[in-house]
Here is the input.
Amino acid sequence: VLLVESGGGLVQAGGSLRLSCTASGLTFSMYGMGWFRHAPGREREFVAVSWSGSSTHYTDSVKGRFTISRDNAKSTVNLQMNSLKPEDTAVYYCAARRADSTGYDYWGQGTQVTVSS
Here is the structure.
């Protein structure tokens, strides 16, 4: 299984970025697809998830600013990030979770997002 993130970069506060994660080696439609982030000096944080049944869930700090979406035909999950803040700066990771798993089974290598003030 391989998860490959793309779309990170440097953006000014208030700007937008779109992250993408393409999966291979798994039956994509059967997996919940999540985004996590890890900032220096902080623990890894859940950001958003798109479940296989198309429901979504977000951490409070990104609600109304971030949108997760998935394309099962392309085995891709996206994270549209608007109104970015400096505190959103982190390495963002894509992860896949089977419905019967207690945690995430597969992780990508991460993509850096830096928001300047």
